[in-house]
Write a structure and sequence with these properties.
The complex is a heterodimer of chains A (274) and B (599). Chain A contains 10 helices and 7 strands. Chain A is α+β, with helices and mostly antiparallel strands and 274 residues long. Chain B contains 16 helices and 21 strands. In chain B, helix 1 packs parallel to helix 11, helix 5 packs across helix 15 and helix 9 crosses helix 10. Classes of the chains: A alpha+beta (274), B alpha/beta (599). At the A-B interface, helix 1, helix 2 and helix 3 of A face helix 3, helix 4, helix 8, helix 10 and helix 13 of B.
Chain lengths: 274, 599
């Protein structure tokens, strides 16, 4: 050992000697053809999150257990799953928020087709994103620079926090409970993206047709399930969906209102929920 | 083994990796009018760029009009202990501002100055506040902006598709071969040019800030295709990783904490960095707390030693902790709570606030963070031509962390995101230009492809009983203990032996389950790349008998005049690595003059 300060670290697969407590996970194993829950018991260390336990099970008992993850810090949105039925990021769910004396159930997110174990086919979200008309900026200021003021971009920056974990899509009952609606409903993630573009101070593109007819805004009856599960605490319903709904009403039928907003790049009609 | 038919695609340019460099390269190649594909190991938008926090360095001059590319160039070279490829450092400093403004043109929303321009923050080794940023989630803004731009340009994206081997037609690149993670089925790409944008190597160390993807694939692919590597001994240990609880050990704590006023303290509360100012940076570093604190507002003061380059700070933290003045879990304290108001901290560092609150039960607006060094970034990698990003193999290009040269012996914070877009763009442009000169699609040897495919399936037919996760854990222990922040010959020789024995264990790995989305199989294949990269790093580190930047040797604690003039170059020969010392590029006199000016 060189002169590097070192204290015990938890590698997947090795429990620290001091570990005394065990935990049992009931994990969905299977693919599109079928499957079942299987139980795994493994030692628990201080500070562990659900994803650490999954990794330890993978390293020691189930080498082929399929799970998506990347950053393990709540920044990439890869490890979405349903923990005791609640949609969460596994990397941000601490074991000490769960009762380790009870069996903990880990299931794949329900709204998208199963590939294997905890991995689902989320391509719906990527396909829907392709339909959104791109950002189209107005010309720069006469000196070639672009000026925007912090107070005008705060609300759009809130939408840009989205890590695309798709938990909002997963809990939205419009598509969770009605597979057919996926044809005509883009879902909260896409609404947040649309709101970000529509409220961008520099954007000039016209998305009224899409908003009115193609993304299914009208299906949303504002139950706020999406807002409740958002790990980035984006006020999806209040700050994105409701303003979009209002715009469809005022601007689709009043093109002058739309034009005025695009020309001034200011829109202070909508209060932001902090 | 029965041969299967492979799904086959034909492109002019394929880009491997969809972080900042890969996305930018694909956008540029596609814009040049060639048929382009982007191939990535994870879903689109999940690459390691998403974890970049503090910002993107560019001499925009929005906060300090005195800033310009020459100052940025000088900071980059000095931060890299002058081992950098000067031409890359020059291009980088000159083009970074345009690349940042281009991101804004594509919809990125950076934090603003009072005048409505892009705000810039202080960071280690940068003379002026230079990092354009979005709170502490700049990487997310960048990857999402590039991702959406690429999607709207209609570039074909192959997600969760893992390339295992580059294919050649004689001396030239002819394509690539890999597998779909979802199905385990193979896929063959015929391509005139390949851009490597595969990122870093941190997964070979136990304490690291990297995602599962950072297994050095591009470096290993390039080496197997016959390309040169340089500077493989230069690994950056970021000074501030989380250290407690154990499950988050290594997770990055942005340098922005110090850029926004945070300071390092030892167990007795002393701001110990004042005791660790090296001679090389003495003239430009404050030697007392009053001047250090005044520097944030008035750049006529000298910079706080909290913001010395990362290699210096990491060594200081290690030394302080080893001397018994550290924090309870073997690091030191990073304090912003006593230095900035809670509202300011939450606004500027929202991810850090959440990360510590949710994962460590620490409120950073009220208490100090406990931090220590974590393996973060590879300065070394594939040798490239500065202007074209071309490797030494015809038709093969590289950009971003996988490429070497820009950062020399140590990278400055913020210079990675700018590296991605500056050289990603150039790699895409030059790969497209090259592809246009190739008149017919190169020929691929079907027998070679079958041979590769059979090799990839071997772990399913092996009864050796080795567990890929156990081999990975053993490799991480080996590199952490023997080729870490502080190195010594005896331990590195031991590492060479251990890596040798792990290479012998690898063919005995047994994979259970099917080819469908099988992480055990994927790891078994990635291990080959991790072992290659680890061996290259260790042997280069043995060869450089001095201390410089990210490479610190207990047995050679000083810089050495001879090693100041050479790169350690690694080439493949008959399946083995050969190492040599080759002279650095000579810097022209007008740029040399920039280093003679007094600070």
């Amino acid at each position: 050992m060189a002169a590097v300060a070192e204290s015990p670290a938890a590698a997947p697969g090795s429990a620290s000697p001091a570990s005394t407590q065990n935990v049992t996970f009931r994990i969905w194993r299977g693919d599109a053809a079928g499957g079942s829950y299987q139980e795994y018991t493994t030692p628990l260390d201080e500070g562990m999150v659900v994803l650490d336990v999954i990794h330890r099970i993978q390293a020691t008992q189930a080498h082929d257990l399929a799970v998506r993850w990347n950053c393990k810090a709540g920044k990439c949105g890869s490890c979405s799953a349903e923990i005791n039925g609640k949609p969460r990021l596994m990397c941000m769910t601490r074991m000490d928020t769960l009762d380790p004396t009870q069996v903990i159930t880990i299931s794949p997110i329900k709204t998208f087709p199963l590939i294997k174990d905890l991995v689902t086919d989320v391509s719906f979200n990527f396909e829907r994103a392709k339909e959104v008309p791109a950002f189209k900026p107005k010309p720069p200021d006469p000196d070639g620079k672009r000026r925007m003021y912090q107070e005008d971009i705060d609300r759009v920056q809130e939408f840009h926090k989205c890590i695309e974990c798709f938990l909002c899509q997963n809990v939205c009952h419009v598509i969770r409970d009605h597979e057919d609606n996926k044809q005509s409903f883009a879902g909260p993630r896409i609404f947040v993206r649309l709101a970000a573009l529509e409220m961008h101070p520099l954007d000039t593109n016209d998305r009224r047709e899409l908003l009115k007819a193609k993304v299914g805004l009208g299906y949303c009856n504002i139950t706020k399930c999406c807002t409740e599960v958002c790990p980035e605490h984006i006020h999806i319903t209040d700050n994105a969906i409701i303003p979009l709904k209002e715009r469809v009403v005022t601007e689709y039928y009043d093109p002058l209102a739309w034009l005025a907003r695009k020309l001034t790049s200011r829109d202070r009609r909508t209060g932001i929920v902090e | 083994m029965a041969t299967e038919t492979y799904e086959t695609h034909e492109y002019d340019v394929i880009v491997l990796g969809a972080g900042g460099a890969g996305l930018r390269a694909a956008i540029e190649a596609s814009a040049a009018g060639v048929k382009t594909a982007l191939v990535c190991k994870s879903l689109l938008g999940k690459a390691h760029t998403v974890m970049a926090e503090g910002g993107i360095a560019a001499a925009l001059g929005n906060v300090w009009p005195e800033d310009n590319w020459k100052v940025h160039f000088r900071d980059t070279m000095r931060g890299g202990k002058m081992l950098n490829n000067w031409r890359m450092a020059q291009i980088h400093a000159q083009e970074a501002p345009d690349r940042v403004l281009e991101l804004e043109e594509w919809g990125a929303l950076f934090d603003r100055t009072k005048d409505g321009l892009i705000l810039q923050r202080d960071f280690g080794g940068h003379r002026y506040a230079r990092l354009a940023h979005v709170g502490d989630r700049t990487g997310l803004e960048m990857i999402r902006t590039l991702q959406q731009h690429a999607v709207h340009k209609g570039i074909d994206v192959f997600m969760e598709c893992n390339v295992q081997q580059l294919l050649k037609d004689g001396d030239k690149i002819a394509g690539a071969f890999g597998y779909w993670r979802e199905s385990g089925k193979f896929v063959l790409f015929k391509a005139k040019a390949v851009v490597l944008a595969t990122g870093g190597i941190g997964k070979s160390w136990k304490v690291n800030s990297n995602s599962w993807e950072c297994t050095g694939d591009g470096i290993a692919l390039a080496l197997r295709a016959g390309a040169d590597l340089i500077d493989m001994e230069m690994v950056q240990f970021h000074p501030t990783g989380m250290i407690w609880p154990p499950s988050v050990r290594g997770l990055l704590v942005t340098e922005g904490v110090r850029g926004d006023g945070g300071t390092l303290r030892n167990a007795s509360g002393e701001r110990f960095m004042f005791r660790y100012i090296p001679e090389f940076f003495k003239a430009e570093t404050a030697d007392n707390e009053a001047e250090a604190d005044a520097w944030y507002e008035d750049k006529s003061n000298r910079r706080t030693p909290d913001l010395l380059p990362r290699d210096e700070v990491a060594r200081a933290i290690n030394s302080e902790s080893k001397s018994g003045r550290g924090s309870p879990h073997g690091g030191v304290f990073l304090d912003i709570a006593t230095r900035r108001p809670a509202d300011y901290i939450k606004k500027r560092l929202p991810s850090m606030y959440t990360q510590f609150m949710e994962l460590a039960n620490v409120d950073i607006t009220k208490e100090a963070m406990e931090i220590g060094p974590t393996c973060h970034y590879a300065m070394g990698g594939v040798r490239v031509d500065a202007d074209t990003a071309a490797t030494t193999v015809q038709g093969l290009f590289a950009a971003g962390e996988v490429a070497a040269g820009l950062h020399g012996a140590n990278r400055l914070g913020g210079n990675s995101l700018s590296d991605l877009v500056v050289f990603g763009r150039r790699a895409g442009q030059c790969a497209a230009e090259y592809a246009k000169t190739v008149t017919s699609q190169p020929t691929i040897d079907a027998g070679e492809v079958d041979h590769i495919a059979n090799g990839l399936l071997r772990p399913f037919d092996t009864n050796g009983g080795e567990n890929p996760y156990a081999i990975h854990a053993d490799l991480q222990d080996c590199m952490q203990n023997n080729v870490g922040l502080i190195r010594i010959e005896k331990e590195m020789l031991e590492a060479v032996d251990v890596i040798g024995s792990l290479k012998k264990r690898l063919p005995k790995v047994t994979v259970v389950g099917s080819r469908q989305y099988n992480p055990g199989w994927h790891l078994a294949l990635d291990l080959q790349n991790m072992l290659t990269v680890s061996e290259a790093c260790t042997r280069a580190a043995l060869t450089r008998k001095e201390s410089r930047g990210g490479h610190t040797r207990d047995d050679y604690p000083n810089t050495d005049a001879h090693f100041a003039t050479v790169n350690i170059v690694i080439r493949p020969k008959d399946g083995e690595l050969t190492l040599s010392e080759e002279p650095l590029l000579e810097m022209p006199d007008d740029l040399k003059a920039l280093f003679e000016e007094a600070h």
